[in-house]
Amino acid sequence: MSWTDRTERTEELIVKDAFAKRYKKIFEAKYDTFMESNKKYLRRAIRINTLKARNEIADTLRAQGWTLVPVPWCAQGYWIEGERLDIGNLLEHQLGHLYIQDPASMLPVEILRPQPGERVLDMCAAPGSKTSQMAAHMQNRGIIVANDADASRLAPLGVNLQRLGVANTVITRKDAREYKKYSFDKILLDAPCSGTGTIRRSLKALTQFNPQQLHAFHKLQYRLLLTGYAALVSGGTMTYSTCSIDPLENECVIDAFLNAHPEADLVDITVNIQREPNILTHPETGSSLHTAINKCLRIHPYTNDTEGFFVAHIRKP
């Protein structure tokens, strides 16, 4: 079966009433577009791992019959087009020369851009997609603390980092909030979330949707963001990201953070990508949010044919 034969799901999406009610209000006229996009499987994509290979490996893959389309916001990223689906079986994949990763997931690191020699914290690191991407940016120089509180996720994290040749990383299992007593030049917080931007990859985010869980995630995300900011050195930067499209987990978290830290700077995100307007009204109370949140990046599954994602870039004075 070719990729073009399987771009759209054949089964009907089962949508809970609470999901439809909430996101019809949030998306308004674009709700149907959002749901139609969720019927489509994600385009496969890879990131060339420059710790083990050069971008010329893309030419090698093309010579093998692969059709690669560059990702505009990541020089090492490529969508895979055409008939073949077996990218994960390639020797280049097994050797860690490339990594299968959705292009939206590449955004937080491309925005943070850690440099060689820096001290970096990845607060919720498993399975290691962004950790390894940061290590490549850092050329394996400096140090990354790759933390995850879930013990069951540490094994795939370790396996991926080893396969990809990451050598500047220490793996820890802690409540990430314990790291407020340390200091880092850059911090990545890819926060636990509802995953409502990932329905194209897994229907779990749709079938298991629970409005109450959104509030639990909001509280956790806010506490983790406060911790990350406390651990930043003066002049340091961090990215906050989720694969959720719900403003309660995105703009509302940043709004609460700015209320607690009005001195913090939101940095304009200028990557080469189509974006959606940020949501500056609380989805439940109707209250207005900080206009500075317009500097953040919001994308929906239909915006760039990727997962839905949100990224904020924060600098500590």
Task: Describe this protein's structure.
This protein is an alpha/beta fold. The chain has a single domain, classed as Vaccinia Virus protein VP39 (Rossmann fold, 3-Layer(aba) Sandwich), CATH 3.40.50.150. Helices cover 28% and strands 19% of the residues. The chain contains ten helices and twelve strands. The chain has helices at residues 17-27, 31-38, 57-63, 91-94, 107-112, 129-137, 154-163, 204-207, 211-231, 251-260; strands at 45-48, 67-70, 77-81, 98-100, 119-122, 143-147, 169-172, 184-190, 232-242, 265-266, 297-299, 309-315. The strands form two sheets. Strands 5, 6, 7, 8, 9, 10, 11 and 12 form an eight-stranded mixed beta sheet that branches. A four-stranded antiparallel beta sheet has the order 2-3-1-4. The protein is globular, with a radius of gyration of 19 Å.
Number of spatially distinct domains: 1
Strands, total number: 12
Helix percentage range: 25-40%
Class computed from helices, strands and strand pairing: alpha/beta
Question: Could you name the ranges where pLDDT drops below 50 across 5 or more consecutive residues?
Answer: 1-6
| Element pattern in H and E | HHEHEEHEHEHEHEEHHEHEEE
Basic shape: globular
Structure annotation, total helices = 10
CATH topology (level 3) name: Rossmann fold
Radius of gyration: 19 Å
Give the biggest beta sheet: 8 strands, mixed
**Overall average pLDDT:** 94
CATH first level: which class?
Alpha Beta
Beta-strand percent range: 15-25%
Distance between the termini: 54 Å
So, the CATH homologous superfamily?
Vaccinia Virus protein VP39
CATH architecture tag? 3-Layer(aba) Sandwich
